Structure formats: structure tokens, C-alpha cells
Amino acid sequence: MGYFDTIPTKDKARAFLVSSSGFLLDGYDLSVISFAEPFIQKEMSLSSAQLGLVVSSSLIGMIIGSLLLGRLSDRVGRKKLMGIDLFFFLVFALTSALSQNFYELFSSRLLLGVGIGGDYPISSTLLSEVSPSRSRGQYLVGAVAMYWVGALLANVANLLFLPAGPYFWRYVFLLGSIISVPIVIARIKLLESPRWLVYAGKVKAEVPKELESKGAHGFLDIFKGTLLIVTVVTSAVWFLFDVAAYGIGLYYPYILKEFAFPSYYSVIYGTILISLASLAGYLVAVAVIDRWLGRRGVLLVGLGSMAFMLYLGAFTKIVGPVLVPYFMTFVALEQWAGAVTLFYPTELFPTSVRSTGQGFATAVSRVGAVLGVYYFPQMTKELGFSTSLEVFATTSLVAFLVSLWFVKETRKMQLEETSVGVREPLRKAT
């Protein structure tokens, strides 16, 4: 057992709850906009280009937030920023609900995304730094699973408020702002990461300060030596995953409405089933991430399953109600890859630049998400639904091949063992 594995259970549980809440709000927000988009387009008379910008606006904001707040987290600590990032969500979810035109809605959701984007590197970094090495994967996968709890809450909210008429989406946005209030308050009492305190020289520990930095101290250091390989690989795999995951994931309501069901209520029920299937997939991933398959196995199964399922859907030209069980199966395995791509960088970067590296990888992944979200409707219109699935299958396959070659195993290892320094050799994948 390492020095940092002695953190009290109550502190680890609190860190898990407040860190995972950011992913919950992200899942809530993106699920809300994916269902509300046709209603917003009609109400505000948006062009196709404007609608694409509205849908992807929070993802664009996440690019900015993850870079800025990720780096700032390594400079001033995790705790100081944990409440600030979601305060953005609280305020701009409210202004989104009150928006009257494209410019107000786009800017509100862009700034909302800045907060969520900043929360990704801060929350995942903090949680990885306080989780025990023997079960760190379970903590991190469990936190990422909260995204789909948020998606489920959003679908239930859509179901409850849909009878209110075409303006229902405003109430659902407002509810998101209300949900974030207790989360922001809870984060005020969160303890600082002990690893960051050691690196910053604020406390003395058995672990030397130099072991927490390994020669990396600034933003440019993640592009030097061996860390450059880590940065490129983690960012590339996450980018390729997000192209497919968000390109399809934000359009489940659209796909079901266009190719399966005429009723919006049937669409909501279908998306609820997809959310439940994803949570079921996470339960299995939690069971195997630290025991049998490890990070490498879970990632490869997830990416391989994505490629297989998407090629299958493309070649069989799948349509109709069978799309629901098809996407239930797809998402249950897809999220195995989603969980690992999100937290894996936090295990490879040293404490001094852990949030910086995670923030950069997040930003690159959101670029992939924006591309997938923005171009999916156009691909579907110009190339057809089946061909669009084939394109996303190919990006998943490339991510699988990159991971097969470069990804190493990190389960049950201390972060001081898994993290890579600027000048040390990159350990081979096992």
C-alpha cells in the first residue's frame, strides 16, 4: 500500500460524489439539447448552420475551458476551481433557458461549456489522485458513468415537461441550473488533493516532491520527450472515439424520430432504454477494470465493439424499431472505451502537469466531438445513414489499432509508477 492510499474513506467518497457530479451535469446538458433541437429550430427560425452551432456550442466552450482551467488547476490547486467551474453551468444554464434568439442561446451555451470543459480535467485529476491504487479504475469508471445518470435524468425531465408545449425545453434547461446549486455548494467543502499539496511544497510526505513532477512543470513540457508520445496517443485515441461517440450520441432522438418512430414520446422511451443500457455496461466495466481486463482490455473491447457494431449497422442498413436494441447494445460496450479514454491520461501524466495534460487531451477530444456533431446531419443527408455509420466505424477502428500498439496497462499501480517523466523511456504495453 502506498503513502497516498491511506486517505480516509469519507474523503475519497466525498471526492467521488462531487467529482462525478460534473459528468452528471454534462450528460444532462447534452441530452437536453439533443432532444430539444427541432423545437428550438422552429421557435427561433434557425438555419441548419445555426442549429449545428447551437448543438455544438457547449462542446466548443469545453475546448476553451479544458485548456484554461486544466492548466490553472496545476498552478493553484484542484479545490479552488471545483466550485467555480460549475458556477458557469449554474448561471449559463439559466440564461440558456431565458434566451430569445440564436445569439443569446449560442453564447449562453458556449459559456456553459467553458465551465463543463474546465471540470473535466479538474474532477478527473482530483479523483485519480485520491483514489486507492487497487481500485482506482472502479472509482474513475463509476464517476464517468454519472454522465448517463445525467442523460437519464434529462430524458425523464423531457418526458415530464413535454406536455407543457413547444417551450418545454426552457423548463428542462432551468431544472439543470437548479440541480447544479447543491453541487456547487458541496464543492466548497472539498479537501485539496494531497499529491498536489506535496508537489506544491505545502506539506511534507514520504514521497519526494520530485517524484510528483518527473521533470515536467509547465504547459510546454507535455510536448517534450516521452511526454510528447503520451500527449499525442491519449489525445488521438480520445479524438477518434469522440468523433463517433458524439457524432451519433447527440443524435439518438433525431435518428429514432427519423428512422424508427413518429411519436416524440416513443423517442423519449427509446432514449431512456439506451441510457439504461449504458449504465448496465458501466456496471460490468466497473467489475472488470481493476480485476480481469484492466484498462487496456476494457479499452480494446470497447473500441473493437464500436467498430463492429457500426459496420454491422452500415452493411445491414438497419432502420425501424430494431434501432433501439441495436443502440442499446452499441452504447453498453461503447462506453467501456468512453470511460478509459476519459480517465487514462490522468494515470500517465505526473502530478505537476496532470490536469494540464488531461485538459489538452479533453480539448482535442472535443474538437472530434464538434466535427462529429456538426457533420453528422450533413453526412446523413448527402451520403445516407448507413454510410455515415460506416465513416464512424472507420474512426473507431483506427482508434482501436492505435490503442493496440501504444496503450499500456496501469491497473493496481501507484500514480508515481504509471506516470511518465519527460526523459524516461515509455514502458511497453502489456
The overall pLDDT average reads 92
Distance between the termini: 22 Å
Assembly category: single chain
Order of helices and strands: HHHHHHHHHHHHHHH
- The CATH class assignment is Mainly Alpha
Membrane topology: Multi-pass membrane protein
Transmembrane segments: 49-69, 81-98, 139-162, 168-186, 227-252, 264-285, 297-316, 322-344, 388-407
Protein name: MFS transporter
Pfam family, one: Sugar_tr
Descriptive terms for the model:
single chain, 430 residues, mainly alpha, Growth Hormone, Chain: A, 0% strand, globular, MFS_trans_sf, transmembrane, MFS_dom
Explained architecture:
GO terms for molecular function: carboxylic acid transmembrane transporter activity. Keywords: Membrane, Transmembrane, Transmembrane helix. One of its GO terms (cellular component) is plasma membrane. It is a multi-pass membrane protein. The chain contains 15 helices and no strands. It has 430 residues and is mainly α. It has a single domain, classed as MFS general substrate transporter like domains (Growth Hormone, Chain: A), CATH 1.20.1250.20.
